[in-house]
Amino acid sequence: MEQAKKEWYVVNTYAGHENRVKDNLEKRLETMGIADNLFQIVVAEETQVEVKNDKSKEVVKNIFPGYLFVEMIMTDEAWYVVRNTPGVTGFIGSSGGGAKPFPVAKEEMESILRRIGKSDKKIEVDFREGDTVKVVSGPFSGMEGVVDTMNDQMQVATVLIILFGRETPTDFSYLDLKLAD
User: Where are the alpha helices (DSSP H) in the chain?
Assistant: First the structure.
């Protein structure tokens, strides 16, 4: 019996080929007739600020190199088309031998989509501009800073943290922050 609901799956690709595989899948939607079963194809990328030699620049980084996320109805045909797309090495959660993969848990996928700004579910936060917040995850975990600006649409706050003795504006997902004690 085939599943009839759309769910998220993790597709394994060659590292560095995620966007090429996404393009290939998008082209195959129409040519292979699976547009009714394949809905979103997401490469989990986020913009990060890198500081080198006292200069900061924005860099787009893939959060999960070698993987992309596909929202689909897992029919035999859709599964076959995705699996046989150039650059795809398989699905995560499939034991092989023709076994279909397990979907990603809704909460996990929501967290990933929120992190890359593609979620429509809004996070309620208990801080606002001018408040001191603590970073709870990521490379700046444990650091505190003052909220400079908030982008409720992207669910991102710019926080002034002290880096190398200077106050540096750094963007954080609302999920990565909590009001400081």
Answer: 18-31, 76-83, 106-115
Which H or E element spans position 42? strand 38-42
For residue 106, what is the domain's CATH number?
3.30.70.940
Chain segment 9-32, per-residue pLDDT in tens:
999 999 899 999 999 999 998 898
| Whether 18 and 107 share a structural domain | yes
Whole domain around residue 146: which residue ranges? 132-179
Q: Concatenated DSSP letters for 143-176?
A: -EEEEEEEETTTTEEEEEEEETTEEEEEEEEGGG
What is the separation, in whole angstroms, between the first and last Cα of the chain? 53
Q: How many residues does the chain have?
A: 181
Whether the Cβ atoms of residue 161 and residue 167 lie closer than 8 Å to each other = yes
Please indicate, yes or no, whether the overall pTM of this predicted structure exceeds 0.85: no
Residue 26 belongs to some domain of the structure:
yes
Question: 135 has which bridge partners?
Answer: 177
- Closest to 160 measured CA to CA, from 168, 150, 149, 171: 168
Please state the domain count of the chain: 2
